[in-house]
Amino acid sequence: MEHPTALVTGATSGIGLSVARGLLEKGYFVLMTGRNEEALDQEKSRARSRGRSIETLVCDLSRQKDVETLIEVTRAAFQDKVDILVNNAGIATFASIEETTPEEFDHIISVNLRSPYLLSRAILPLMKAQKEGLIVNISSVAGIDAWSGTSLYSMTKFALRGLTGSLLAEGAPFGVKAVAICPGYVATPLVAGAPVRLEEMIQPEDILKTILYLKDLSPAAVTGDIVMKRLGGL
Ligand SMILES: NC(=O)c1ccc[n+]([C@@H]2O[C@H](COP(=O)([O-])OP(=O)(O)OC[C@H]3O[C@@H](n4cnc5c(N)ncnc54)[C@H](OP(=O)(O)O)[C@@H]3O)[C@@H](O)[C@H]2O)c1
Fold it and tell me: Of 29, 117, 144, 165, which sits with the fewest C-beta atoms within 10 Å of its C-beta?
C-alpha cells in the first residue's frame, strides 16, 4: 500500500469525524463508516477535493451482517494491511436500572461492545501478520467508574477495557498495540444537554492528538489505558 491505513468507526460526527479528518491530513488512507450516508458523501467529496485517499461505507454496527460487510470492504480497500483501527462508534443511554429495558441492553451492547469485538477479532490477525498495528478503543471515564444512571453505558465501556487488555496481551508478541482512551466530557453532539459548557469540555481534536502520540511511540513503547479528564472535573 502506498499510504498508511486507518479504519475509523462512528466517523460521521464528533470524535470519529475529527480523528478521521486528522488522519486524512496526515496522509492516511482512511475508511470512514457510520449510518449517515449524506455525511459520509460530504466527507468523501471534501477529502477528494484535498487530494486525500478516502473510502466510506454506510454501516449499522448493531447488525452483524453490516459489520461483516465492513470487514470485507476494509480488507479489499486496504489489501489486508490495516495500520490503525479506531473503534469509536458509540451510543449512550442514561437512566436508572429500573428504567432500562433488556432491549436497550441488547442494542447498546451490539453497538458499543459487540462491533468492536467483531472488528478487532477480524483485524488483529492482519496486524499480527504484518507485525505492527494499533487498535484504539474509545472507552470513557464511565468505563473506570460507574454512577447513578450510567449502568448500561458503563457496562459496555468497562467491558471495552477488558477487550483492550486481551488484545494487547495477544498482540504484543507480534508488535501490535491496543489502548483504550477514557475521556470525560468531550464537546460532541453525544453530550448535548450536559451540565458543562461545550467550551469547557475536552475537544474532539484532543483524542486525535492522543492517537497520533500513540502512533508516534517507538515499537516497544505502549501506554496503559489513557484517562483524559476535563481540567477541574470529569
Ligand atoms: N462525547 C463525550 O463526552 C464522550 C466521552 C467519553 C467517551 N465517548 C465515546 O466516544 C465515542 C464517540 O462519541 P461522540 O461523543 O463523538 O458521539 P457522536 O458525536 O454522537 O458520534 C457517535 C458516532 O457513532 C456512530 N454510531 C452510532 N450508532 C451507530 C450504529 N448503530 N452504527 C454505526 N455507527 C453508529 C454515529 O454515526 P451515525 O449516526 O452516522 O450512525 C456517530 O458517527 C463513543 O463511543 C462515546 O461513547 C464520548
Answer: 165
Q: Is 62 in the pocket of ligand 1 (CB under 6 A)?
A: yes
Q: Which residue has the cell 460487510?
A: 69
Distance 173 CA to ligand 1 centre (A): 31
Amino acid identity for residue 148 in this structure: S
**Long-range contacts from 19-25, C-beta under 8 angstroms, 24+ separation:** 19/86, 19/88, 19/204, 19/207, 19/208, 19/211, 21/47, 22/205, 22/208, 22/211, 22/212, 23/84, 23/208, 23/211, 24/50, 24/52, 24/53, 24/54, 25/52
pLDDT category of residue 40 using cuts at 50, 70 and 90: very high
Binding site membership of 133 for ligand 1 (Cβ less than 6 Å): no
Per the structure block, which three cell numbers stand in for 90? 458509540
Q: Which domains does the chain have, with CATH numbers?
A: 5-228 (3.40.50.720)
pLDDT at 44 over 90: yes
Contact between 204 and 187 (Cβ < 8 Å): yes
Question: E strands of 83-215, at which residues?
Answer: 84-87, 133-138, 176-183
- Distance between Cα 19 and ligand 1 center (Å): 12
DSSP letter, residue 92 = -
Beta bridge partners of 182: 227
Cell for 148? 447513578
Continuous segment of H or E residues that includes residue 13: none
Please report the atom of ligand 1 found closest to the CA of residue 12. Answer: 43
Out of 28, 117, 153, 213, the active site residue is 153
Tell me if 77 CB under 6 Å of ligand 1.
no
